[in-house]
Specification:
Two copies of one chain form a homodimer.
Chain A: H1 3-17, H2 24-39, H3 47-64, H4 69-82, H5 88-120, E1 126-129, H6 134-145, E2 151-155, H7 162-172, E3 176-180, H8 185-188, E4 194-197, E5 201-203, E6 206-210, H9 213-223, E7 227-230, H10 239-242, E8 263-265, E9 270-274, E10 280-283, E11 286-288
Parallel strand pairs in A: 1-2, 1-4, 2-3, 4-7, 7-10
Antiparallel strand pairs in A: 5-6, 6-9, 10-11
Helix pairs in contact in A: 1-2, 1-3, 2-3, 2-4, 2-5, 3-4, 4-5, 5-6
Chain lengths: 316, 316
């Protein structure tokens, strides 16, 4: 593969790598567009060259957001499905069908989740939402558009303030929003009938989401506020992949640009909420608790290029 | 009292009212300087006029920071002590002695607290500190200067970032500091041997401190990290005065300058940590728990001008 093509894939993936504001489902939709751009007008490409480009794209996408399961599953499906295709036209057709199916699955899941969230919101109530999740936004806007009146409290989600993106989206959809800084949520939560968050990936130990989700969960339990993570089942991963999120540290300057000498910055992006701190996981298959998740933990095949421990191959 | 003198007292008090970065003990020291400025060169004043000026100063100081008990007790002591003084010179002398005694008490308390904190820090350990407290700073710097090596994790304390002031002071005193945003404390706390915070006032229900202290406390309990509030006993107030802090809301623009239409801002400054979430209250009289506090809750006399519900007087 030419150096320039490697570089152009990196350029395409860069906005996903550098986006601290969007949720996993939203970035998976952007990853679909990137795969489409990579195969566009490549009917006359050598099949092996095209497959290499897609493998390169898949690897870069997964390493750009290692905590985001929907991106991993999308990339993995593309690579597994095109593995045996013989011509460039076949590769493109199979890739496109995989992308279309995945996009439809994401949208169907969001709609089914929204219908269940509608039932969880008390009429006239106050609900809490943390960080930014397109699944949470669509669920709350759906409830409002179906005529349920409620208010939402949300907080900044430092350091990148994606809580402001949430507040803006909800307000522009006609929901009355109350906004405060993160540590003040303890003053607002006692008045909330429910709390919602998105998530990036799920495995047996719990759900991974924006840093601070663990504190949200501990506070909700203390105050007896039901806490739901909203997520399609495409976010389940093997337990081995769950802790990939720990690799994801962002620049310390995002937290404090001019920290004095002797002050070391930490800027981790995700943390883990154990299942016992969640009231339920609202999926397209219903509201799940820890006892329900085993069937979703079935072993899926992982393409060689996306395995966590690359297998050493002995060549002659 | 002349309009201009009322105004000049307001001007003197303004920096205390508008300071979101300093702790209660630190602002009480500044209040001492303000009282000194008010009585300076007033030997030839009418005694009643001088008393009026001090009453005005006391009222303005208390309403500038209604949660900060040391300011209330300082102002209350000055007014009670000068009540029967006959001449301006007497008023000034009594006022000055009250201020000197109070300053000495604050400094003695801080030193005795620091000596106890020294014993609570594990050699080589990591300790957590929240928000800004001069008592916490002096205790940690004292331990370092006595040769104990340890590191401190602290967080921003949005929206006014007084955690950065804490980080800077500790780092410049030779302590290695790790700094992150507030909601990331859940990732750092599991490695901490103890957590420390200051406080603004104390009564039977618990201690009042910077918003978020409640979440710090709930997280510490979940992770079994001992949490200590450091405070001289001058921070005890009657239960009636404890909730004065709820009056204290700061401008919403501090949280989000350009919030869109439909988004209402909340910017509360304090919250309450119930005693059962605290491991102990480190005072100049030892480490207290809920069972020990009753003797410190003795009824103190409150000057008429500083009573919460002004008594209606019937005049002929």
């Amino acid at each position: 593969m030419a150096e320039s093509e490697n570089k152009s894939i990196s350029e395409l993936v860069k906005p996903i790598k550098e986006d601290p504001l969007s949720g996993a489902a939203e970035l998976a939709l952007q990853a679909i567009v990137i795969f489409q751009a990579v195969v566009a007008d490549r009917q006359d490409e050598e099949p092996e060259k095209l497959r290499d480009l897609l493998r390169q794209t898949a690897r870069e996408l997964v390493s750009a957001q290692p905590a985001m399961a929907p991106i991993f599953h999308l990339a993995n499906s593309v690579l597994l499905n095109i593995a045996d295709a013989k011509t460039a036209a076949d590769i493109i057709a199979i890739c496109q069908k995989t992308l279309d199916d995945y996009e439809k699955q994401l949208c169907d899941s969001a709609a089914k989740i929204a219908d269940q969230v509608y039932e969880l919101i008390e009429p006239g109530g106050l609900v809490f939402a943390y960080s930014f999740s397109s699944t949470v936004v669509s669920a709350l806007l759906n409830a409002r558009s179906r005529g349920k009146y409620f208010r939402v409290v949300c907080t900044e989600a430092r350091p990148n303030m994606e809580g402001r993106k949430l507040a803006s989206r909800l307000a522009s959809g006609g929901i009355e929003v109350i906004h405060t800084f993160d540590m003040a949520m303890g003053l607002a939560l006692p008045n909330c009938c429910a709390a919602f968050m998105g998530c990036d990936c799920i495995a047996r130990p719990g759900v991974v989401n924006k840093v601070g989700s663990w504190m949200v969960a501990v506070s909700c339990r203390e105050l007896k506020v039901p806490l739901y993570a909203l997520s399609g089942t495409e976010k389940f991963v093997g337990d081995d992949r769950l802790f990939e999120f720990e690799k994801h540290e962002r620049p310390g300057q995002e937290v404090w640009g001019e920290a004095p000498k002797g002050v070391r910055m930490l800027n981790n992006q995700f943390d883990l909420v154990p299942f016992d701190l969640l009231t339920g996981l609202v999926t397209e298959c219903g509201i799940l608790t820890e006892a329900d998740i085993e069937p979703y933990m079935t072993k899926y095949k992982v393409h060689e290029d996306l395995k966590l421990e690359p297998v050493l191959t002995v060549t002659d």
